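Handout, page 2. Input:
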Amino acid sequence: MLCLAGHLNHPQRLALAGEIHARPFMVIEAPAHVSHLAIHAGDGELAHDRLLAALCARFGVAAPAAGAQHFFHDFGHFRLKWEGHTEFSTFSFVETAEESSDFQRTALRHVPADWLALLQSSVIVAAHLIAERGTPLGIDDKRLKRLFPVPPLVGSQVLSDGEIWTDFQVGPDGFSKFLLRDTGLRESQMGRLVQRICEIETYLMMALLALPLARDGAVLLQAIEEDLTALGARMSGLDVDGQAEDLLREISRLDARVRAQSFRTGYRFSAAQAYDRIVGARIGELREQRIEGVPTIGEFMERRLAPAIDTCVSVAARQEALAARINRSNDMLRTRVSLAQERQSQSVLESLNRSAQRQLQLQQAVEGLSVVAISYYGIGLAGYALKALKGWGLDIPVDQVIGLLMPLVAMATWLGLRRLHRHLQPAKH
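Output:
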């Protein structure tokens, strides 16, 4: 037989193949007691593997290697199945027991009390399950009323030959309770049914973690919307030119509040929707059939979980819409400020143009005076020259020659200035 050499495999092939079989169903045969704990550790203060290691140490069992995601072991009095997830880990304790009519004897009684004390406000799910064989029960059964006294009673036929009864209530002992009945299930179906119920309860609570954030977020968003509305009124009713800096500072503050809220809730809302999809998938795998007079698990979740998820989705959409409104207000204000600045710039340019025109007029007046002054000094110099020539014996009518030179000098001076002006004009451009 041809074998594939190990070095031919992709580096992740075996690890990925292992993930497919990472969380197998436990083999559970009725009658049995199951206690299920889900330990939330989203804040990072509680290490999942440390809790498992502490439990294994109490019973002298070798704990799995660090980083393991699942663990199964028979501890004698009970079997343990542990699974590690991103935000939580689950401990399922299974005890094969005789038929039991109530939840007085549970698999969790074998767990040391000091280990339970390590959980310290981290238990998000605690449930007891009874797995038993028998015939289908009716809703008027006295035992059901004794086990689940607080309405509403929830029940359904599952996997064709099984029953589930519960009220999804957390009892005075801190545990929710489920009664699972084997009325003809095939081999391994009870184990799959137990795991599905534990997963539904766990993912239900993990999804609901987002609801308090959604409620608090709705109050905060309402306050921000009111501030934004008031800001819009100020923008339309006040002089933006004079209030621009204050308004921009206020918009930036509102934007920072919305972004901070989005950062706080974004992951939680996304996780809630993912958990909700898992709950829906697990309920679908139960293949529920109605028992007349009581709602099914699917119907119960539709009335209780769906509104909570819708609230989270609504608040998330409201956050995005509010952020978009703030951005539009910011853009509008900046546009108005830009227009005001352009008007101011245009006014400055017009003022500079008027100043330039006045300077040009003044320059032209000065040029006229300059022609007169230069001509005056030019004629004076010419007069001195003529007088000197006359003193040397030349018979020159000085006054007459100066009179003739006056317009010529003035014209020559004016033409010279104009030429100089034309010569310098290109340099200005």
